[in-house]
């Protein structure tokens, strides 16, 4: 731990540097890789989920039991989010990043020797906790160094890289599991120590001297509760294809694992395209971007829910995928746009907590719908809720625009 040195005031990435928008490429590469590490908490178990459940005796709990094995890491992320913000503010983002990378690697490798279900779930929980600390530190540094349209573009690109990493690591994980058993993919966590080594080199340079904080600047993270609430709900909806689409397609006759993986990969590719295009849309649409995203998700899920034809369902996946690509970068960008400098780590930590809490709640949300109405109803009901939510947000945007001139008139 001797390498984790205390940063000076001039090396505090929670403040915007004087040379904003300029960052060494090696440092930028490390920060943009964080999303891939977060996806590995899922992709190392997804291809082998049924084998893991069977090994630990969870197969008797059915679909819900196996999905709770998958969601232990998101639970660790959601619990760790608020603490991650405090850790970053208290000890510094560089120290937080280095320590979290070490903990992430150790927790991932611990699963190689976990024999009991308790040890397995604990390792998954710690892995999620470390992951959210990594993401909090990296997002806060990026948010401090860039602003406006450039930051929006970078957040979209980062989300696209994350989704691409999901696609790549899940394929690699599946091949490794087929060759070496369900534990073998957890050797992939050795790669985090490569990231750590590069980060130690990249972050040796100072990040710039921050300008003085405006006198009297105050901000409460609690004022962002509408964004956090919407993030939690959108995270439940956003994970529907990953968590639930396989069961629906299998019910409708798509039983080949190869064909199923191709369909899900198609949705992921469309989502990547949406993420890379996010910056262009956000600069022009601002808050209307989330309305567009919810409309696309609602339309796509509605198609999936109403029709029992696999080709039509694939069309629904394509429609919803583009909207899904907007969701995460929008929430991150809106948070960074509204938060003050000193509260950035806490704001990002709470945001990530809300996001991954939504992942954890997804199986719990769909279980009663599936049990009473079936798999198609899951997507139809979610689509209707998204449509209603999008209309409500659109009306609130229009109302705020009408009230703003009135407020100016009263002030004058």
- The CATH superfamily is identified as MFS general substrate transporter like domains
Can you tell me the CATH architecture? Up-down Bundle
Unreliably modeled segments: 1-20, 208-217, 406-412
**pLDDT averaged residue by residue:** 81
What is the helix fraction of residues, given as a range?
Answer: over 70%
Number of separate structural domains: 1
- Write the element-wise H/E pattern from the N-terminal end onward: HHHHHHHHHHHHHHHH
Overall spatial form: globular
Strand content: under 5%
Counted beta strands: 0
How would you concisely characterize the structure shown here?
The chain is mostly helical and about 400 residues long.
Give me some keywords for this one.
single chain, 412 residues, Growth Hormone, Chain: A, 0% strand, globular, disordered N terminus, disordered C terminus
Mind explaining what this structure looks like?
It is a single chain. This protein is mostly helical and 412 residues long. The protein has a single domain (20-206, 224-407), classed as Growth Hormone, Chain: A (Up-down Bundle), CATH 1.20.1250. It is 77% helix and 0% strand. The protein is built from 16 helices and no strands. The protein has helices at residues 25-32, 34-43, 49-55, 62-70, 72-91, 93-110, 117-145, 148-180, 191-202, 225-238, 240-251, 257-285, 288-306, 310-338, 344-373, 375-411. It is globular, with a radius of gyration of 21 Å. The N and C termini lie far apart (58 Å).
């Amino acid at each position: 731990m001797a390498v984790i040195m205390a940063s000076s005031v001039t090396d505090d990435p929670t403040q915007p540097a004087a040379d904003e928008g300029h960052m060494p490429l090696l440092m930028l590469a490390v920060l943009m890789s964080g999303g891939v590490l977060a996806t590995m908490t899922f992709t190392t178990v997804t291809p082998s989920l049924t084998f893991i459940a069977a090994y630990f005796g969870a197969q008797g709990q059915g679909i819900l039991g196996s999905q709770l094995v998958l969601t232990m890491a998101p639970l660790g992320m959601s619990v760790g989010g608020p603490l991650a913000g405090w850790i970053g503010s208290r000890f510094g983002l560089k120290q937080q990043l280095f320590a979290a990378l070490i903990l992430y690697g150790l927790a991932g490798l611990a699963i190689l020797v976990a024999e009991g279900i308790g040890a397995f779930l604990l390792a998954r929980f710690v892995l999620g906790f470390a992951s959210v600390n990594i993401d909090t530190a990296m997002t806060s540094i990026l948010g401090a160094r860039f602003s406006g349209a450039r930051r929006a573009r970078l957040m979209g690109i980062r989300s696209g890289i994350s989704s691409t990493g999901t696609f790549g690591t899940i394929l690699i994980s599946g091949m490794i599991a087929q060759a070496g058993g369900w534990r073998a993919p957890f050797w992939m966590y050795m790669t985090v120590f490569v990231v750590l080594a590069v980060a130690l080199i990249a972050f040796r340079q100072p990040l710039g001297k921050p300008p003085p904080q405006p006198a009297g600047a105050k901000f409460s993270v609690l004022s962002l509760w509408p964004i956090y609430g919407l993030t939690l709900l959108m995270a439940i909806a956003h994970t529907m294809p990953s968590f639930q689409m396989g069961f629906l397609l299998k019910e409708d006759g798509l039983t080949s694992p190869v064909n199923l993986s191709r369909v899900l990969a198609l949705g992921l590719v469309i989502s990547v395209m949406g993420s890379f295009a996010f910056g262009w849309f956000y600069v022009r649409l601002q808050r209307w971007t989330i309305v567009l995203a919810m409309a696309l998700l609602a339309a796509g899920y509605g198609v999936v829910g109403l029709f029992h034809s696999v080709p039509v369902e694939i069309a629904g996946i394509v429609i919803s995928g583009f909207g899904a690509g907007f969701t995460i970068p929008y929430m991150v960008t809106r948070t960074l746009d509204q938060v003050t400098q000193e509260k950035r780590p806490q704001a990002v930590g709470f945001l990530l907590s809300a996001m991954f809490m939504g992942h954890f709640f997804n199986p719990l949300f769909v279980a009663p719908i599936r049990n009473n109405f079936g798999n198609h109803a899951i997507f139809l009901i979610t689509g209707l809720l998204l449509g209603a939510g999008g209309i409500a947000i659109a009306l609130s945007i229009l109302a705020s625009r009408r009230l703003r001139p009135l407020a100016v008139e009263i002030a004058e």
